[in-house]
Design a protein that fits this description.
Elements (H helix, E strand, L loop, with lengths): L8 H17 L18 H9 L6 H15 L28 E4 L2 E4 L11 E6 L1 H8 L10 H18 L15 H12 L11 H7 L3 H12 L3 H21 L9 E5 L2 E8 L6 H14 L1 E2 L2 E7 L8 E4 L9 E3 L4 E4 L7 H9 L7 E5 L4 E7 L14 H14 L2
């Protein structure tokens, strides 16, 4: 009869150590460390203070630092916002004269879109930098207050600088290079999920396209030049986090609960929103503006205001933060508008509530210290002022409703 044998103590501990090391070396199969693409801060003084505290600065940030300080200091109402969120700074907000280009809203104003916008169907590039903004604004400042467009431009540049230098946002993706995102991401994740992988298998064409994105070129080079297996695995993990963030940014994330019905051969899609503190004329204004964009011959989106439900997105108007970028905050389920926001931006933000990503691209030129924003004037998720809902977007939305149907 065979007797059971026990492992020697030394062999036993070696086996346990091997299992522990194997578990530690197995990377997470879900990469969730995404950088933000919008910051919940719009006060220029606070944004500048954060930039000043960054220890390692790029050459561009060192070069433009004096201009940033100068332009922020000239914003007469860039004061600290009370933590309570109350609009106690309303007296510091300059309300623009109401004319054909503005509409009164919550004690301040929204900008009207052009009556007959020109649409070309082509990508439009607009550049912005601290140097050109300083030149453009010279002679246009008042000592006590700054025009809302000027504040908006300053806040926009501060936001981009913070996202790039503090949060590592990849301002390098273009309409041409986005096609390489998924195959690059697939190859990087495949290597990341294989504990023994130290070389990312990128086909020559995919590699060439990926290298057009400066951050990807640096990340790939870091993997290839790392001197040890541990260093290579760390570089691959960073590459995986980066591609995961970028792919996630341009994905359709799925619509919330929507009601649908057919009325005279037209599909009617209803989105419930919470009215917040907006009054009935203001709600009607936002509703009619959004519904005019989100409709076509055979399908239409309806907005309904429900003040009883607690799990709906609500529209907030922040009178104390003129010039800030309209945005959707999924954490507190809010659509955020600001004095000076274009009225038509509500249609773009509704698109985010429905699950669509931004379709514009911001590209950073680290040699010239210039941001270039690429927008398509026929797509509301790219250009909220002139764009419409594209056929592709309608198809994605309707297919998502079909998949979610019981």
């Amino acid at each position: 009869m065979r007797t059971a044998r026990t492992l020697p103590k030394k062999a036993f501990f070696i086996m346990i150590l091997a299992l522990i090391l194997s578990a530690c070396s197995e990377p997470s199969r879900v990469i969730t460390q995404y950088p933000p693409y919008h910051l919940e801060i719009s006060n220029p003084d606070e944004m500048l203070a954060q930039l000043e505290r960054i220890p390692e600065k790029e050459p561009c940030d060192i070069a433009v630092a004096p201009i940033r300080r100068e332009l922020v200091s000239k914003l007469g109402h860039s004061k600290k916002i009370p933590d309570s969120g109350e609009s106690s700074l309303a007296e510091n907000v300059r309300v623009a004269p109401l004319d054909e280009s503005t509409v009164p809203f919550q004690g301040s104003f929204l900008s009207r879109p052009p009556k007959s916008p020109v649409r070309t169907g082509k990508w439009f590039a607009s550049e912005s930098s601290w140097q050109t903004l300083k030149v453009a604004l010279e002679g246009g400042w008042a000592d006590s207050e700054a025009p809302e467009p000027a504040r908006s431009m300053v806040v926009s540049l501060l936001m981009n600088d913070l996202l790039r230098s503090m949060h590592g946002v990849n301002f390098g993706i273009t309409p041409e290079t986005i096609v390489s995102l998924k195959p690059v991401h697939a190859a990087v994740i495949a290597c990341h999920n294989d504990p023994g992988c130290t070389t990312i298998a990128l086909p020559a064409e995919t590699r060439e396209t990926a290298d057009q994105i400066p951050m990807y070129r640096r990340l790939r080079t870091a993997v290839e030049t790392a001197g040890t297996t541990i260093a290579k695995r760390e570089a691959i993990a960073e590459f995986a986090r980066r591609t995961s963030a970028d792919v996630d940014r341009y994905l359709f994330h799925g619509a919330p609960k929507l009601k649908t019905e057919t009325d005279r051969d037209r599909l009617m899609i209803t989105l419930d929103l919470h009215p917040g503190v907006l009054n009935e004329p203001e709600l009607k204004l936002l509703e009619s503006t959004a519904e005019e964009v989100w409709k076509k011959t055979d399908v239409m989106l309806n907005l309904e205001w429900n003040s009883l439900a607690t799990d709906l997105f609500s529209v907030l108007f922040h009178i104390e933060l003129p010039g800030a970028r309209p945005n959707v905050n999924r954490a507190n389920r809010s659509i955020n508008l600001y004095p000076g926001s274009n009225l038509r931006s509500i249609a773009h933000e509704i698109g985010h509530v429905l699950g669509f990503p931004d379709h514009y691209y911001t590209v950073w030129d680290e040699k010239e210290c210039v941001y270039t924003q690429l927008t398509l004037d026929t797509d509301v998720m790219s250009d909220s002022i002139t764009g419409s809902v594209t056929e592709t977007e309608w198809k994605v939305l309707i297919e998502s409703l079909t998949r979610s149907a019981p």
